[in-house]
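Lab notebook, design round three. We kept the backbone fixed and only want residue identities now. Task for the bench partner: fill in a sequence for the structure below.
Input C-alpha cells:
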C-alpha cells in the first residue's frame, strides 16, 4: 500500500546547518535507557534519522573518559548520526562541554531544557531553566558561539499550561542560535501523567522558521501521521516506544508501513532473519531481549549489564497483554545466564501482544 503524503514527508531527508539527515525519525534522548548498547541495537535494525545520547553533565564532559563513562561513550561508527545531549545551568560550562562534543566528532549537540526530574531541577537544570527564559537563551547563545555543529534544543511546555509562552521561548532559542527544536508538549509538573497536547506544537512551529520535531506518546505510523497533521511539525522524536520496539524505525520506513499498521505484519515477516549468539530466535521479541543482553555485556561488566537490562525491561514488557507478569519474570534474573534462560521461558512461545503499550510500565 502506498504511504500517505504526510508519512512520505517524514521519510524524506532534511538538512540542518548544512548536514543532511536521511529521514525525520529521531531516537529521543533518554536518561538510563539511551546508552551505547541500546543505540547499537537500534542501529542494527536501522531506519532512524538521528540517534541521541542520554543526558550528559556539562560539568563532567570536559574531563570525562569515554572508556569508563556509562553515559558519555559511543561507537566510532555511530558518530556521523549521533547527537550528544548535555545538561547544566551555567552558560560557560555548557559551552565548554559543547566544545568537547564537537572535538569528538558528534553530529550535533542537544540542550536539555525538558527534564523535570527533581534531582535535575533542584540544580537549576533541565526544565527548571524554563522558569528563566533569559538564562536558557544565554546558554543557547554561548553554546552557539562555541561550536559550528548543529544545535538542538529539547524543551517542554513549561511549568504552566500556556503554549503561547512556549512559542515565545522558541523564538528566543531561535534568535540565540538554535538550528532545530524538539518540543514535548507537556507541562513539567505532569512529567508523563497526562497525555501530551500535540496541537500545542503548532504554537512553536508557527513562531519559528527552524525545524520543529514533535515528541510524546508516538507509538506507530498512525500516530506519526496524526501528530504531523495536528501540529505541522517537521519530524518526530520517539523515546520509550523505541525501547519497547527497537525496530520501530525500521518498521516505519519499510515498504509495507502505512498509518493503520500496528507493525505486526512487519514483525512476522522479519522475525526469521534474526539470530542471536544462542541460535535462531523464535520471534523478534525473543531476539531483541536476548540481543540487548549480548550488547550490554559487550559494553559493560556483568553487574552493570544486569542493572541496565532491568531498566530496559519495564518498557519492553509494555508490549504484552500481561506485561506486568512478564516484567516480574524478566526482572528475576541476577546474572546473564539466568536472564537468557528466563527470556526463553517467558517469550517462547510468544505471549499475546497489544497494539498500544501498557503506559503503566512506561514510568
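Proposed sequence:
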Amino acid at each position: 500500500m502506498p504511504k500517505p503524503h504526510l508519512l512520505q514527508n517524514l521519510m524524506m531527508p532534511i538538512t540542518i546547518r548544512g548536514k543532511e539527515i536521511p529521514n525525520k525519525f529521531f531516537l529521543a534522548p533518554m536518561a538510563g535507557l539511551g546508552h551505547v548498547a541500546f543505540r547499537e541495537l537500534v542501529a542494527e535494525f536501522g531506519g532512524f534519522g538521528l540517534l541521541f545520547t542520554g543526558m550528559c553533565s556539562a560539568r563532567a564532559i570536559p574531563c570525562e573518559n569515554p572508556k569508563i563513562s556509562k553515559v558519555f561513550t559511543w561507537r566510532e561508527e555511530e558518530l556521523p548520526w549521533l547527537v550528544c545531549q548535555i545538561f547544566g545551568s551555567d552558560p560557560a560550562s555548557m559551552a565548554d562541554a559543547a566544545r568537547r562534543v564537537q572535538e569528538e566528532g558528534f553530529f550535533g549537540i542537544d540542550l536539555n531544557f525538558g527534564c523535570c526530574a527533581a534531582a535535575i531541577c533542584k540544580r537549576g537544570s533541565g526544565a527548571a531553566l524554563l522558569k528563566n527564559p533569559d538564562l536558557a537563551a544565554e546558554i543557547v547563545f554561548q553554546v552557539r558561539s562555541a561550536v559550528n555543529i548543529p544545535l538542538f534544543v529539547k524543551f517542554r511546555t513549561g511549568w504552566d499550561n500556556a503554549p503561547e509562552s512556549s512559542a515565545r521561548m522558541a523564538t528566543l532559542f531561535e534568535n540565540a542560535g538554535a538550528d532545530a527544536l524538539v518540543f514535548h508538549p507537556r507541562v513539567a509538573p505532569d512529567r508523563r501523567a497526562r497525555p501530551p497536547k500535540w496541537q500545542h506544537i503548532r504554537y512553536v512551529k508557527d513562531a519559528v522558521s527552524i525545524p520543529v520535531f514533535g515528541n510524546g506518546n508516538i507509538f506507530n505510523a498512525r500516530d506519526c501521521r496524526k501528530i504531523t497533521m495536528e501540529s505541522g511539525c517537521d519530524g518526530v522524536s520517539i523515546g520509550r516506544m523505541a525501547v519497547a520496539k527497537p525496530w520501530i524505525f525500521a518498521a516505519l520506513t519499510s515498504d509495507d508501513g502505512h498509518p493503520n499498521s500496528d507493525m505486526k505484519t512487519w514483525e512476522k515477516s522479519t522475525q526469521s532473519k534474526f539470530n542471536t549468539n544462542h541460535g535462531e530466535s523464535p520471534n523478534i521479541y525473543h531476539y531483541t531481549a536476548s540481543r540487548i543482553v549480548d550488547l550490554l555485556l559487550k559494553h559493560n561488566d556483568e553487574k552493570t549489564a544486569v542493572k541496565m537490562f532491568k531498566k530496559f525491561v519495564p518498557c519492553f514488557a509494555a508490549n504484552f497483554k500481561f506485561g506486568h507478569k512478564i516484567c516480574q519474570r524478566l526482572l528475576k534474573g541476577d546474572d546473564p545466564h539466568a536472564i537468557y534462560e528466563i527470556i526463553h521461558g517467558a517469550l517462547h512461545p510468544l505471549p499475546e501482544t497489544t497494539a498500544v503499550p501498557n503506559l503503566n510500565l512506561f514510568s
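Keep this in mind before ordering anything: DSSP finds 15 helices and twelve strands in the chain.
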